[in-house]
Amino acid sequence: MAHILVIDDEPKMTSLICGTLEDEGHRVTTSVKPSEGLQLIAKHSFDIVITDLSMPEISGMEILDAALAKGDCEIIMMTAYATAESAIQALKKGAADYLIKPFSLDELVLLVKKLGDKQMLSSLADHYRNESSPKVKIIGSSPAMKRIRRMVEQVAPTDATVLLTGRSGTGKEVAARMIHDFSPRQSRAFIAVNSAALPDTLLESELFGHEKGAFTGAATRKRGRFELADSGTIFLDEIGDVALPMQTKLLRVLEERQLVRLGGVDTIDIDVRVVVATNRNLKDEVLKGTFREDLFYRLNVFPIEMPPLSDRGGDVLELAEHFLAEWNYPRPELEFAVKQLLQQYDWPGNVRELRNVLERAIILAGGEQIDKEDLGIELDDRPLELGDPGARGEGLESIEKELIVQALKKTGGNKTEAARLLKISRRRLYSRMKVHGLKV
Question: How far is residue 392's CA from residue 275's CA, in Å, rounded to a whole number?
Fold first, then answer.
């Protein structure tokens, strides 16, 4: 609710306006002395100032000038002298609107609500714009990340819907923000929504908004994230976790580019760029019947799969140096043994895990050199179990093949991890797989 200052030399008028607005839930300060009103404006912050235009000693125009100089509020002028000249002059100076006495209190309530909604929307849009600044970028020089960066730069100038896939922590939101930052919509809002964090009933209100009284607790109208993202970008994370009924509503909004607030009847046009992300295989979810096929094809316009950190080679150290430079902690150099451990570790939590491990380590190190114990990670050096190959009369070729098969099985088919487990290069692994007739 808004904090409102009412200035009028008629005590009955200030009292009437104060009671009406307080009944609507606003916090109201009143003054029947214009000089006192000027002091209040100078000392305090108000969302809205309502002032009479014609008062003794100090005019409403002076109040308007002081409020505009403060720059943090909307101003409503009241006048009993319905001259077009005074109203136009006030509006030209920067007043939000004016009311001619006597006016309907309902008219005042609606005007205050309109200005409050405008301020809320502006504040939220500024918040999300600032949140995405400075411009984010994808860190990494590996071939995998060069390919991702190239795809992002190609799709960003378009309005195509982007589907970001990959394991948790691989940087899907960073890619989404980069798409926005490289797009013509970069000066507009970037609105991120974690679809899995809210139950469907709240998610619908969060995305599409609701009208006053739409449900218990809906005391005021609320604009949804799609409206807040108008002319900008909306990022729907964990889209694979949205339940089927909500998927149907989302599909309709994406296809028609229109929405109706929960509990409302008016159709609202929207102009948004849509980027979605998931760590699920949506094709599998479609086959299982948990994800709508038509929604999948609506989203799968430009798919980008984010690679796991284990497939990014030297990017681990590049990311580590980036994170260490980003924080306001004393920045120690990384020892060779620490760098070696960072590169050899599998990083099941991907970039997110690397960031958390480094922040913990730099705190534990207390400004001194980070050592391996500060990292708190260990390599999986357990040997592959082959039993006793000699007892089975197997030769070297057979033993090597079985080692490769077991390494691939243990790593779920990830050849980079299998090569690391076997302590050979990935190129060498591919070569030996071909020799043994294994599918590369």
Answer: 56
Rounded CA gap, 387 and 299, in Å? 49
Domain 143-305 is found in CATH 3.40.50.300: yes
Residue 92's pLDDT is 81
Task: Spell out where 95-157 has E strands.
Answer: 97-100
Residue 267 has pLDDT above 70, yes or no: yes
Which residue, 427, 195, 415, 145, is CA-closest to 299? 195
Which comes out higher in pLDDT, residue 82 or 73?
73
Q: Which residues contact 236 (CB under 8 A, 6 or more apart)?
A: 193, 195, 274, 275, 276, 277
Please identify, in words, the CATH class of the domain defined by 389-435: mainly alpha
- CA angle in degrees (0–180, nearest 5) for 408-409-410: 90
Alpha-carbon distance of 41 to 438, in angstroms, equals 78
Least confident of 3-7, 78-82, 107-111, 228-232: 78-82
- Angular region, 161: left φ>0, alpha ψ -120 to 50, beta rest: beta
Whether 143-305 and 3-116 are alike in CATH topology: the answer is yes
Return the higher-pLDDT residue of 360 and 80.
360
Q: What CA–CA distance (Å, rounded) separates 236 from 191?
A: 9
Signed CA dihedral, 249, 255, 261, 265: sign only: negative
Examine the pLDDT at 345 and tell me if it is beyond 70.
Answer: yes
From residue 217, alpha-carbon distances to 20, 103, 113, 203, 212 in Å are 21, 31, 18, 15, 9
Q: Which two tokens stand for residue 259?
A: 């929405």
Give the C-alpha distances (Å, rounded to integers) separating 297 from 99, 129, 171, 273, 292. Answer: 52, 30, 23, 16, 9
Helix, strand, coil percent content, the chain, rounded in steps of 5: 50, 15, 35
Instruction: Note whether 115 and 102 are within 8 A (CB).
Output: no
- Which amino acid type is present at position 407? A
Structure tokens at 188: 């507009």
Q: CA–CA separation, 173 vs 272, rounded Å?
A: 17
CA separation for the pair 196, 227 (Å, rounded): 20
Q: What is the CATH number of domain 3-116?
A: 3.40.50.2300
